[in-house]
Amino acid sequence: MNYKLLQHDFRTGLLRKRYLWLPLLFIIPCYISSRITTALGMPGTWLDYLCFFFFGCEPIYLNSLDKVILPVQWLSLVGGLLLVNLDYLLYDLDNAGQQIIVRSASRTQWFISKCMWNIASTMVYFIEMAVVAWFFCVIKGGESTLTQISEVSVGTYNVAEITLQDGGKLAFAAILMPFFTLAAASLLQMALCIFIPPVFSFFFVFMIMELSVLLPFPVLMGNAAMAIRSGILHPGFMNVGMEILANTVVMVGSIVMGAIGFRRKDIIKWRE
Amino acid sequence: MAMKIEIKDATKYIRKALILNHVSVSLQSGKIYGLQGPNGSGKTMLLRLISGLIKPTSGHVLIDDKELGIDMDFPPSMGILIEAPAFIDAYTGLRNLELLADIKQVIQKDQIIQTLQKIGLDPNDRRKYYKYSLGMKQRLGIAAAIMEQPALLLLDEPTNALDEVGVALICNIILKEKERGALIVIASHDGLFLRSLADELYYVTEGKVEKRNVCEEES
Amino acid sequence: MQSILRVELWKATHNIKFYIALTAGVLFAVLDAILTGNGPLYGVCMIVSPTNLGSALFFFFWPILVALPYGWSFWKEKKDQSYIQIEARVCRKEFFWAKFMAVFISGGIVMSIPILLNILILALFHPYEMPHVLSGMNALVNGYFLSSLYHSNLWLFLFIWCLVDFLWGGVIACFCLVVGSKPTFQVMVILTPYLVLLALEIILNTFLYGPNFTLYEVCPMELAKAGTLSANPGWIIFSEMGLFAALDIGLGYWQVVKHEL
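Predict the joint structure of the above. Result:
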């Protein structure tokens, strides 16, 4: 692993102004959950706020007479991350790119470094989300704990199986699984950028995420990022093992496909 | 430091268009090679091929008997300036070079400063890269190519956007790089500039490369 | 003016992104036609009853589809400096209006052709019946735009809605001009209208809707459908469309004509 290259990617890739705009994206989910806490008359914990972001929506059954209502908040959080991570690869090759890549000595290492950056960027996204949630929690006088949930989450998720001690279960379904899924989606998007222009790459991955909303199959990766559909919270909904497998396949597949594709790619002018 | 490059029967197609047509060239350290030819003849593509940025559809590029693209992805010690120089807009010239130097970590900040001074740029200039003039950008691009004293130096139209003083300065720098023992390949449409520097001159036309005698060219 | 408009229109409708956007829109529309259930035409066409995968995809991605054909053109011409060649031949005002019209028409085509195609395909397989107010099925009752026409002349209702969507497509596509050449990458220019509409959707849903405010549909992304959850009266549709058009023309004009090139 070329640590100097990785260091370069972290420095130039994670110090971009767009990360400063991200909290705006997180304010609305926090605002909605704070309204719920107010309605329920209890402050809620930090974990309650965090678990609200990737709530998602219950499975939609198409072809019923009901009109489709998409979980716009969930889709915007997913789209937000995909956009944040969309163009660094392009930016890096477009700016000092050729100078960097010839110094990196290896195309594979260059791509692996971008993959590492991608995962780190997803992590930063979640950290910012946690910070905004913490602020809201503190303002509302809630407890800053990441292990306990309150009646707020029990009410939001509306499941009898969750008890107040189930913070870990909920955190797994509502934070860890979305993180894993979004990291995989983001890597897929980056790998696709090597073969098709970024706008189509974003469109393709985002369409998979929207298809996941409309088609509740565990193999469609977006389902794993919707906590309400998790088999952990609702036995009989999505199979968590299958979801993890599907996301792992996407993640590993993207890295391998991207690395092979980049090895063969002529670096002439990056298509937009 | 010594480097030998052999291009053996390399052909390159991009979307069915023939870019390089059975090119065979041998290059050695301590010499300046000039690539002359009209626009779109394939000079830049030949530089990209040598640098490892593109791969031949058929044929081989050997660097010290190791095949580029198989035994290595890029030549081990190389400085390039291909097409327009590009850097991160939000940083100063010095900061951009520092970031690049950080990847290989073979030179220190004082050497970067020396290179900037040598190329006619002020290391203390606080202006961001996007505020640079075309000529300053070109100088910074050349500085990035030469700062790590590479064994292979590939320069594509290095005199673009430079004034007369700048061209003279670049000629001087290139000659010093040659004295140091670097293998230098320069692509330019400017025959006069190439003839004043090159030890060997190649004429590129429609993807074919043919060697020309420098003295013949001069006459 | 005519010659520059002709050139811009030709460029807008003869590029790969236009074909891709139109193909994607048509695919969604055909998918909707395939997946839709039984029922009379008035209840199944995607503009009235967006209840399946095809229509859901179409009505979620339409802001990207309409911006894709030519919304990026000013940005690109400014970045590669080719606008200078045009500037030297026509005045800036003419350039702006030609560009505006070309982006508008390309966006409108990509928006309305799939919808029209969906109606025509469904008309081949589903009976033409007049909806009954009391049927309760996908009823566009009082308060919906052209609801009386829906119950009296369905064809006219559908074609007028195609026209409304043509206008929506055009207006939203022209929103790309608002950002001028500020974004670093073309992809961001294409995604700008989508991001703005998505942000509006979230903000309006969060702050306006609730138990006390479900009377009218106000999210512009939803207003491209005839069959919205809440009523979509004409004054809301056209005032929002007018607002976007004013922004397009005002800020776009500033970016292209007044802004220092």
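The helical segments of chain B are 43-51, 93-104, 109-118, 134-146, 164-180, 191-197, 214-218.
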